[in-house]
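In the design runs reported in the main text, the only information available to the sequence generator was the tokenized backbone. The following block is the verbatim input for one such run; it is reproduced so that readers can re-run the procedure and compare outputs position by position.
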């Protein structure tokens, strides 16, 4: 059994910790990068603050910039600058009426006796007077009865803070800067109207009193005109009001006609309040007050229109729910805040900067096959994903905290005014989404350089598109929010929406009582933050699940293949029985099997016999008809890399796999180690099927791949320590195993073991790869050309290590060195054109395929023909195989050959030929290899 998940996680964590400690400077520079951006923006802000005068300390957060105290202004406030309204709020419309002390009374100024007595001014109970005339007095009287919504209860309470339309039935009136009254034909004693009002994130109750609205009839519009003029011209309150709220002339209106002229006051020094105005809250020392939203003419028209519709009795009414100002920017004369304006795109780019970093790290491990190397030595998917994800998450958290910290310390309002808790929630969610997105995208890159360039292009292009396109869509209120949600599915747009809303809240909050976004604002549908957070959480889960699926299965095709194999195996009830059932397919090509050499056929029969047995405990590796076909691309034919190889390897045995380049040796090793999936057939490693149980197989094998898959930022000792922990080695046992491995491959002396692998030569890396494959006592070891690139001395040491290691395990070794194969391998199989050509020990192969001796004779030029006759005199079956510059080689069959006769013939020939050198040698393994490969090529051509 291999290391547990906890042990795997511990080993991987320690290895990554060493790597990150060595990359400390790079990581620190990365985490401190936000300091650069915040310093630039903060420096600009400081320069702007010094260049502009400070704001008045008596400023109130009222929706206008630079609000100051002005004793001459109505209400004591002056708001000289235009308010910013990027998203104007809804406010109930107010009707402008004179203050109680200036309302029209019977004080001799007016000639009419129907005005209230002047004593009402002392108690503030004077009615608001409206003058009315028209051609049909009875009709006008009926209309006037419905000008004000009647209230019969002593108190009216509304409870919808966000819905100002609930106030539309009541005629709210103002005689100053805030709503003080609502009008009724007749007020019940102590009648009040209460309604909630939301200011920023706070909700407070607002109460107004009942004021009577008096509708006085005049016989003609001329009388109304004279009365209004007299009140204004002769009154002592001409700079305040003339005492009359408004006047109506219904002309010829009746049940079928509705004509109307309205007279209203626009002559005093505050005539602007009679037109559409904005309402904003003002915090004063005494509490909360409200600037009104007088909409004089529309409100007066609406009152008469509703009364006329009510009189018609058809049920409809014209509800004047609210007023809104046109969206606009602020004209601010105080100190300018730069961070929410210029910070959107730079802040987005800064937050996205980790994406190419994460993507490059993941692709680096995949491209250099470090991921599969770790997997082949026992690292499971869960520990790898856990450690990798946690590392990137920790780096991201440090980056976010650095971003927020430096921004706040440098005084940027973008960070200070928005809730730190809300900022962390959204940045944390985005960072998790960004990590999972990088894991998913890494699957589609095979080059680190391509991944890096693509990652940086993504953040630059997506940021620009978001700033110039997505932002306009967000601000376009006519565009369906569904389109916005659809665009936010791209992580970069979700991030931009977050930063945009934070920036806008700071801009608007600069002119309101609520500054920035807080937890209570997350549910506000206007900013859309709740939707963005939901999208990011769902996408994070989906991306992570997809990345895990692709990493584990590769594709749906692989899943279906595994399911099919699993179902077939379960039906048969036993893995070996299931494999035996597959051998029925061998009948289809029995004729081709008969053409194979006897040793190959015998090996196949051994495999069949082992698969039929209930136990094959003496064999570590059994290959059953393994085949690998690479599908042709762009119209090319399929490439058969391995064709129906069947092999069996017992414990304590080293099998050498020989073959020319492209014969299929590495493909065979790749299938046995999980680098690639077999097209058909299977293999059993310690009784486990490579199609179904590679994760279990990995815990008991060692691999020395053809390429050195190493971390250049780790030392040789640290490599062995990491892989030793994966083999469940601990403490003293681990240290001893490392020392022994380093000595066996000559990496111990001179401090070589503690040097970074990036400084190793090619031969040193190769020896380290061999040491890694042998550490931890694996049951099966695969070595793909282990001695390539080694000098003779290192090769000899390596052979000693392998010979010592094979006593307790099965070793499969590929090589081009015939000497290495003879020294290390108990059995040798030669592969050519993807198929097994022969198998046996070195002596068996020489005897079977090398039944001849090689006679070599060197003479001066011109005597070649005499030498050839000499060779044929020794054996009539002698065949010349080589001739270059007087040196000739002849293959002489061993059958009937006597060495004494050869020596005698050569001694006789020296008297008549100038023989410079001669020799007689037995067939070498190299001769066998060349012959088998040549025969295979000839049979393929045939």
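Verbatim output:
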């Amino acid at each position: 059994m291999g290391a547990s998940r906890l042990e795997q996680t511990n080993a991987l964590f320690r290895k990554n910790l060493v790597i990150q400690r060595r990359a400390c400077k790079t990581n620190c520079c990365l985490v401190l990068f936000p300091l650069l951006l915040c310093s630039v923006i903060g420096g600009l802000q400081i320069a702007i603050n010094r260049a502009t005068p400070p704001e008045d300390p008596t400023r109130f957060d009222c929706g206008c910039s630079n609000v100051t105290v002005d004793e001459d202004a109505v209400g004591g406030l002056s708001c000289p600058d235009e308010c910013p309204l990027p998203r104007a709020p809804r406010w109930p419309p107010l009707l402008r009426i004179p203050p109680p002390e200036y309302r029209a009374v019977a004080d001799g100024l007016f000639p009419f006796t129907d005005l209230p007595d002047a004593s009402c001014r002392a108690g503030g109970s004077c009615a608001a007077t409206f003058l009315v005339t028209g051609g049909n007095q009875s009709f006008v009287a009926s209309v006037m009865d419905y000008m004000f919504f009647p209230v019969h209860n002593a108190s009216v309470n509304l409870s919808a803070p966000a819905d100002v339309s609930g106030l539309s039935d009541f005629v709210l009136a103002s005689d100053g800067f805030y709503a003080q009254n609502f009008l009724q034909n007749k007020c019940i004693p102590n009648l009040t109207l209460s309604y909630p009002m939301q200011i920023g994130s706070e909700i407070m109750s607002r109460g107004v009193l009942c004021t009577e609205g008096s509708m006085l009839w005049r016989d003609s519009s001329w009388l109304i005109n004279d009365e209004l003029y007299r009140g204004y011209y002769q009154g002592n309150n001409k700079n305040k009001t003339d005492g009359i709220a408004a006047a109506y002339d219904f002309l010829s209106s009746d049940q079928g006609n509705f004509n109307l002229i309205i007279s209203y006051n626009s002559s005093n020094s505050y005539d602007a309040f009679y037109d559409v105005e904005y309402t904003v809250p003002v915090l004063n020392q005494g509490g909360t007050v409200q600037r009104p939203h007088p909409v004089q003419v529309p409100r007066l028209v609406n009152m008469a229109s509703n009364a006329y519709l009510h009189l018609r009795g058809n049920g409809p009414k014209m509800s004047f729910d609210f007023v809104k100002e046109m969206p606009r920017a602020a004209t601010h004369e105080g100190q300018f805040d730069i961070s929410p304006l210029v910070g959107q795109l730079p802040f987005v780019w800064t937050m996205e900067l980790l994406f190419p970093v994460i993507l490059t790290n993941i692709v680096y491990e995949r491209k250099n096959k470090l991921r599969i190397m770790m997997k082949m030595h026992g690292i499971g998917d869960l520990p790898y994903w856990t450690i990798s994800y946690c590392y990137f998450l920790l780096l991201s958290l440090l980056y976010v905290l650095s971003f927020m910290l430096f921004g706040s310390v440098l005084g940027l309002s973008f960070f200070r005014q928005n809730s730190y808790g809300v900022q962390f929630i959204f940045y944390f969610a985005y960072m998790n989404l960004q990590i999972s997105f990088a894991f998913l995208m890494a699957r589609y890159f095979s080059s680190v350089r391509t991944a890096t360039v693509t990652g940086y292009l993504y953040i630059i292009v997506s940021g620009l598109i978001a700033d110039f396109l997505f932002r306009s869509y967000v601000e376009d209120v006519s565009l369906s929010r569904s389109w916005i949600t659809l665009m936010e599915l791209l992580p970069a747009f979700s991030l931009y929406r977050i930063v945009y809303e934070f920036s806008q809240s700071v801009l608007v909050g600069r002119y309101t009582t609520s500054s920035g976004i807080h937890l209570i604002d997350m549910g506000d549908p206007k900013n859309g933050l709740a939707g963005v957070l939901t999208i990011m959480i769902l996408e994070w889960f989906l991306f992570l699940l997809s990345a895990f699926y692709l990493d584990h299965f590769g594709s749906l095709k692989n899943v279906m293949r595994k399911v099919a194999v699993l179902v077939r195996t379960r039906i048969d009830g036993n893995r070996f029985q299931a494999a035996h059932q597959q051998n029925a397919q061998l009948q289809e090509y029995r004729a081709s099997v008969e053409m194979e050499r006897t040793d190959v056929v015998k090996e196949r029969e051994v495999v069949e016999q082992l698969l039929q047995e209930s136990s094959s405990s003496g064999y570590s590796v059994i290959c059953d008809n393994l085949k690998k076909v690479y599908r042709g691309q762009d119209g090319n034919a399929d490439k058969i890399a391995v064709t129906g190889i069947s092999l069996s390897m017992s414990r304590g045995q080293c099998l050498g796999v020989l073959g020319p380049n492209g014969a299929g040796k590495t493909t065979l090793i790749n299938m046995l180690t999980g680098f690639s999936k077999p097209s058909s057939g299977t293999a059993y490693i310690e009784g486990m099927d490579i199609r179904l149980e590679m994760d279990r197989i990995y815990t008991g094998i060692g691999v020395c791949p053809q390429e050195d898959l190493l971390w250049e930022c780790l030392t040789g000792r640290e490599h062995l320590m990491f892989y030793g922990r994966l083999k469940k080695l601990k403490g003293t046992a681990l240290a001893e195993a490392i020392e022994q491995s380093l000595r066996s491959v000559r990496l111990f002396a001179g401090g070589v073991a503690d040097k970074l692998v990036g400084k190793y030569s090619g031969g040193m890396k190769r020896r380290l790869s061999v040491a890694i494959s042998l550490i931890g006592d694996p049951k099966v070891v695969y070595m793909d050309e282990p001695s390539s690139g080694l000098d003779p001395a290192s090769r000899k040491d390596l052979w000693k290590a392998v010979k010592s290691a094979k006593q307790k395990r099965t070793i499969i070794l590929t090589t081009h060195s015939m000497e290495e194969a003879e020294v290390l391998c108990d059995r040798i199989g030669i592969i050519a054109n993807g198929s097994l050509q022969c198998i046996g020990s070195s002596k068996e192969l020489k005897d079977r395929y090398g039944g001849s001796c090689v006679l070599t004779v060197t003479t001066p030029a011109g005597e070649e023909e005499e030498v050839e006759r000499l060779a044929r005199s020794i054996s009539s079956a002698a065949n010349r195989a080589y001739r270059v510059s007087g040196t000739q080689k002849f293959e002489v069959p061993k059958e009937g050959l006597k060495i004494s006769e050869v020596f005698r013939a050569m001694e006789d020939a020296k008297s008549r030929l100038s023989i410079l050198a001669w020799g007689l040698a037995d067939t070498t393994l190299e001769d066998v290899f060349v012959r088998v490969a040549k025969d295979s090529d000839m049979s393929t051509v045939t």
